[in-house]
Amino acid sequence: MNLSITQGLSGLEKNGVARRLADLLGVDYADLVQKRILQLMGTQEIAELSRDGVDFQLHTHRHCMPNDEFLFQKEIEENRTCLRGMSQKDAVHFCYPSGFYGQQFLPWLKAEGVISATTCDTGFATSRTNALLLPRFVDTSGRSELDFESWLTGAGDFLAIRRAARQKYIPPTD
């Protein structure tokens, strides 16, 4: 299936594509929806959780990282406006979508008033770590509670087997 067909579709239309794909694969789509697997939170859920103290921050509006400064700025502005409308709070922290990042984004983020940004690079942040290139622990369902706790204490970083960098660094275009 050509996934580019979902570009420009509404959320409801994308849901229809996902349902048809699940049917083709023999996956119970209703079960996925009931379990909230691969589901986004709705406006009311975000508003309620925000009132209860959950903090929602920036990620780009379409989960993409344009290499064009104007398009990048538009992504941040749209995401910030949307979040503000649901949470009644200003978002100033950022998480790079899919971990894609590059040096060219740093001044663009600063210009948008972003004060910190996380990559998908695993590691331990120090006082020398650039606040716009923070490493993080990516918590997935495949992680054990012990693994999670080891990263909370900082021990996970020291005990991890070092692999080749898996970051998704985007070099600047000239």
CATH fold-level name of the largest domain: TIM Barrel
The gyration radius over C-alpha positions equals 18 Å
Structural class: mainly alpha
Specify the CATH homologous superfamily of the largest domain: Glycoside hydrolase/deacetylase
- The succession of helices and strands, N to C, reads HHHHEEHEHHE
Strand order of the largest sheet: 1-3
Mean pLDDT across every amino acid position: 84
CATH architecture of the largest domain: Alpha-Beta Barrel
Describe the biggest sheet? Answer: 2 strands, parallel
Total strands: 4
Count of DSSP-assigned helices: 7
Low-confidence stretches: none
Query: What distance separates the N and C termini?
Result: 33 Å
Rough shape?
globular
Question: Structurally, how many domains make up the residues?
Answer: 2
Report strand %: 5-15%
The helix content, as a percent range, equals 40-55%
Reading off the top of the CATH hierarchy, the class of the largest domain is best stated as: Alpha Beta
Question: What are the key terms here?
Answer:
174 residues; mainly alpha; TIM Barrel; 2 domains; two-stranded parallel sheet; two-stranded parallel ribbon; 6% strand
Describe the structure.
This protein is mostly helical. The chain has two domains: 10-39, no CATH class; 42-169, TIM Barrel (Alpha-Beta Barrel), CATH 3.20.20.370. It is built from seven helices and four strands, in the order ααααββαβααβ. It has helices spanning 11-25, 29-34, 43-51, 69-87, 105-111, 145-153, 155-159; strands spanning 93-95, 100-101, 116-118, 168-169. The strands form two sheets. It has a two-stranded parallel sheet with strand order 1-3. The chain has a two-stranded parallel ribbon with strand order 2-4. The protein is globular, with a radius of gyration of 18 Å. The model has no long low-confidence stretch (mean pLDDT 84).
